[in-house]
Amino acid sequence: AQAAFVPQELTTVRVQDPRVQNEGSWNSYVDYKIFLHTNSKAFTAKTSCVRRRYREFVWLRRQLQKNAGLVPVPELPGKSTFFVGSTDEFIEKRRQGLQQFLEKVVQNVVLLSDSRLHLFLQSQLSIPEIEACVQGQGSQTVTEAILHYAMSNCGWVQEEESRP
């Protein structure tokens, strides 16, 4: 009997399209589109697209570190206050750093078992909502929240088509 061919599990994660929100105001910030495409059983949705800001990545890393025990969690790009160069350059460097961070995280079995990571990548829940969901205090389970987001059109990349 021939051994069944097991396809290689592949997860592609991209951090793209940085956008300044609330531009010109004191509480402006940049968020990034996180696009994920996978055939891994670890993920509920095979494709997802969410927007997250740096502060949320910082929270995610802290949570992963807490749960991972001795497993080292990848580093985030620094919060450089003394940045020389243009803002665009800074944002691009940070985008690359965030992408490298996620690429390493999704390859780590221990980190992948943390449902906070899944909600971060595959739902648009806020940080307090993710916490509530993980602790079973949300209105949905982790899987339901992800599927709900995947079914809603915002889970898909639609911007291109919607332009007249």
From TrEMBL:
Record flagged with keyword Membrane:
yes
Q: Which InterPro entries match?
A: PX_dom, PX_dom_sf, SNX10/11
Indicate where this protein resides in the cell.
Cytoplasm; Endomembrane system; Endosome
Report the residue ranges that make up the PX domain in this protein: 10-127
What the entry lists under CDD domains is as follows:
PX_SNX10
How this chain sits in the membrane, per its record, is: Peripheral membrane protein
Q: What is its main location?
A: cytoplasm
Keyword check for Transcription, yes or no.
no
One GO CC term of this entry?
endosome
UniProt record, GO biological process = intracellular protein transport; vesicle organization
One MF annotation (Gene Ontology) recorded for this entry: phosphatidylinositol phosphate binding
- Keyword annotations: Cytoplasm, Endosome, Lipid-binding, Membrane, Protein transport, Transport
Question: Which PANTHER family does the protein's record reference?
Answer: PX DOMAIN-CONTAINING PROTEIN, SORTING NEXIN-11
As for family, the record states: Belongs to the sorting nexin family.
Give the protein's recorded name.
SNX11 protein
Q: Which organism is it from?
A: Anhinga rufa (African darter)
Gene symbol of the encoding locus: Snx11
